[in-house]
Amino acid sequence: MSLPFPGPQRPSRSVARRSVLGGLVVLAAASAADIVRMLVHGGGGTAAGDRAGLRPRVVNLLTGNLRPEDTTPRPTEPATPKSHPHHSHAPVHHHSHGHSHSHGPAHHAAHNQSGKQHHHETKHDRAQARRAREHAKLPPARLHIRTSPAYRLDQLIPNPPEQALALTIDDGPDPEYTPDVLRLLDKYQMQASFCVIGVHAAAYPKLVRDISRAGHIVVNHSYTHALPFSKLPEKRIVNEITKTQRAIERAAGVTPQLFRSPGGEWSRFIFRAIASYGLEPLDWDVDPRDWARPGTKKIARRMLRARPGEIVLCHDGGGDRIETVRALRKVLPTWQRKGLLTIPLHIEPHYLTEK
Ligand SMILES: [Zn+2]
After folding, report:
1. Which of 170, 171, 174, 283 is catalytic?
2. Is 120 marked active-site?
3. pLDDT tens, 209-247?
4. Where are the alpha helices (DSSP H) in the chain?
5. 287 is catalytic
């Protein structure tokens, strides 16, 4: 099986085959039957890798992410949803998996293969095959791999309202600024997508919960915001992604659908890794450079240049963000007066498969 993965961090093929991530990428890209074959025959690892305990780690890494309860999109609507066209669309999940008892081709492949291998099949092998079947039943959208991030609304949401734009707020949650930003958004009935850093989400789970319950979207923005993100070792990149998913799930009971790479840095590897976790890459096209603290006026003026359909960036964490909060005090009522609305980036899985 080839590894179609010429990313900048790509190690030599033999190393990739042995590495945990090599296994992950292979599994993410393989067809259902391939996955089962690979797991039953051990095609994903070498004998040395097996002895070193690498093959079980591949599977643990996968199943750690792909437990049925983790792959089911969870409702992100608040208890009392604000009226908004996109809030009427709960995530549609057409494909049952995990607990389903229907036996598709993947099941038969596993059954046949394991029958042949019965003489040295272990309990562990059977568990691997079962997990592979669960994996194979994932909706196709989960394996959709983009080659560039979304930086406009219509790349994530079908037919967005004409006067809609997206406000993305990065690097929090922050106990000093996030509550102010939430109050402002509530006051002007605007909704945003908060790209949270995992360590902050773990430190301030209540803020993540407040964000989500107010109807805003929580986006995975890595665990430590290490830069340059695309140059990190592959294993570290995956840890940054998974730990943040867990921190957000624990804090707010929602599973992010979007990943924003720190610094907007992307690589082939990042696209593949996030696809295997069911995440879509999120970028932006309006950057007021508020993080450089150029002054409230400049930030507000730059944000107000945004046109419908665009994705605007700003920050509620990562330093002194008082200028950003003050800019939002001007920007939000101005957008409201102009009839613009900011909508949450609530993406619909079946839309993404069609793109
Ligand atoms: Zn950031």
Report:
1. 170
2. no
3. 999 999 999 999 999 999 999 999 999 999 999 999 999
4. 13-18, 20-29, 32-41, 47-51, 54-66, 68-71, 105-116, 123-136, 178-187, 198-203, 205-213, 234-252, 268-276, 296-303, 322-337, 349-354
5. no
